[in-house]
Amino acid sequence: MDLIIDGIVQAFWLVVRGDPDVMRVIYLSLLVSGSATLISLFIGVPLGTLMALSRFRGRGFTLSLVNTGMGMPPVVVGLVVSILLWRSGPLGLLHIMYTPAAMVVAQVIIASPIVTGISMAAIAQLDPRLRMQMLGLGASRWQMLWVLFQEARLPLLTALMAGFGGVISEVGAVMMVGGNIKGQTRVLTTATVLETGRGEFGIAIALGIILLLLAYLVNLTLTHLQQQGRPQQ
Amino acid sequence: MSAMFEVRDLRVLYGGHPVVEIPRLTIEEEEVLAIIGPNGSGKSTLLRVLALLEKPAEGQVCFKGQPINYKRSLLPYRRRLALVMQHPILRNTSTFENAATGLRFRHLPEREVKRRVSNWLNKLGIAHLDKRNAHTLSGGESQRACLARALSLEPDLLLLDEPFAALDEPSRVSLIDDLQNILNEVSVTTVFVTHDRSEALIFGKKVAVMMGGRIQQLGTPEEVFSKPSNEAVAAFVGADNIISGLVSKAQNGLVSVDAHEREIVAIGSYAVGERLVLCIRPEDVVIEPYSSAAPITSARNKLKGRVVRCTPLGPQYRVVLDCDFPLVSLISKQSFQELSLVERAEVIASFKASGVHIIGKRV
């Protein structure tokens, strides 16, 4: 019990004092997972919309890929990205292995299927007559899509939250492609793993609590937006 | 009057089967065309073609004399139309923003949007609901919002797809009344799809009966309802007598309507000079011999006429009379034999004032 209380006290002081190491870890976690989620939105929302609205060749195959991807083990993603980015690998020329960029790549691969799948469901649950009605009022194709996004804004926010939640808490892939280098690629999850392994339970608990709090705050903000989310034209 | 819309040799196919086949149909400017037909007759498909939301397999659609090129963007044309669907499809936002949707698509200045939307919300009696979320509106209020949304576009062509079919009776009646007044006031070219005969009579200056993807008959409501062109049309529109005329007298809840130089008395309160459409069910028209000394019925309306045609219809006879206008009566086989009706025989047709159904007023 002391262990937990010590951990909580330690976490409190780490945050209050603004411990530079901890701050850097928090900052990098947010930066990597935030950018990965943002990029996933740009990939997943259009792809999900396309899959919800049209019947194209290879749709079934894409759908099975997305569904598999939604439950893809992060370690596998870490492995594949490692092989690709390895110095002698096909994308070794980029020299981004063990950098935050590699971590973003891995997290994009993890988050995109989640965002795609939920976006697809979000758009597919809209009344199909909405599209016809908007076109019948003189909407261009883009204006019609914009209305669809607005109408599906709540489930689309869910896609965003699920994508972010999936990557901020992920450890396997970032560990493998980032390397958990102090000050460079160390994030909250990898730091927690490291400190636990070293028997530094106090700091591990502190990091774990900060991670929880962070995930909670981000979701609280988004849920708040969702609740009062009245559309703006 | 010139053609606003014209379709030629139109064919729409679903799975290789034609669902709409129309050699020619024109919609004149400021005309209200009612398309009636049973479910699955292709009338909504035709409406979607007119709304440029569906590309026909064959044929040409002309807008103000210009053929539509489906290879080019249809947006400039679509921006001149407005569609109201059977089910009110509203966005999850305020009633005002919903009514403003089409104007926003057209990037109208804010002041103009406000002016038009307020005006139409007001005309449709829902101005007080402008800030309410549209998803909390009742069925009637929702459809009013949809009409405001369409009318605020001041479209060249208003397309209505069974706009009252999803409403409960009181909302339907009051909305029909309001829309009638509105269409009289703004005289916008309108195509109105319905399976309800009375709606077609109320709104249609012309009525097209559609069955099996083809237009079976096109004419004034009186023509279509009194002289169906074939049995299928007759079976669908019913065989009511439709007579139009002007109110010549009105007192004590009774109106006298001057129709084809004859006077018909009906129950209702309307002003002298108003044009009414009267509907009399054939089974309510009783035939008496012309010579009969004492009246058999106490019916208020007694019209002298001649028998034009008698057709047996199972246990009944359908008798067409000429009373300066065609009047159809449905009598039992027994009465038919007792009256010993023959063609050109002079008879008295009588029906009660309460048997005259006033369908709608049109200015």
What's the quick description here?
The complex is a heterodimer of chains A (233) and B (363). Helices cover 76% and strands 0% of the residues of chain A.
Characterize the structure shown.
The complex is a heterodimer of chains A (233) and B (363). Chain A has helices at 2-16, 20-53, 59-70, 74-85, 100-124, 128-135, 141-151, 153-168, 172-178, 188-197, 201-228. The model of chain A has no long low-confidence stretch (mean pLDDT 89). Chain A is 76% helix and 0% strand. Chain A contains eleven helices and no strands. Chain B is α+β, with helices and mostly antiparallel strands and 363 residues long. Chain B folds into two domains: 3-240, P-loop containing nucleotide triphosphate hydrolases (Rossmann fold), CATH 3.40.50.300; 242-361, OB fold (Dihydrolipoamide Acetyltransferase, E2P) (Beta Barrel). Chain B is 26% helix and 37% strand. Chain B has ten helices and 20 strands. Chain B has helices spanning 43-50, 75-78, 95-105, 110-123, 139-151, 169-186, 197-203, 221-226, 231-237, 333-339; strands at residues 3-14, 17-28, 32-36, 58-63, 66-67, 81-84, 157-161, 189-194, 206-211, 214-219, 241-251, 254-259, 262-267, 275-280, 286-289, 301-313, 316-322, 326-332, 346-351, 356-361. In chain B, the strands form four sheets. A six-stranded mixed β-sheet of chain B has the order 6-7-8-3-9-10, with helices on both faces. A five-stranded antiparallel β-sheet of chain B has the order 13-12-11-14-20. In chain B, α3 (95-105) packs across α4 and α3 runs parallel beside α5. Classes of the chains: A mainly alpha (233), B alpha+beta (363). Chains A and B meet through α6 and α7 of A and β6 and α3 of B.
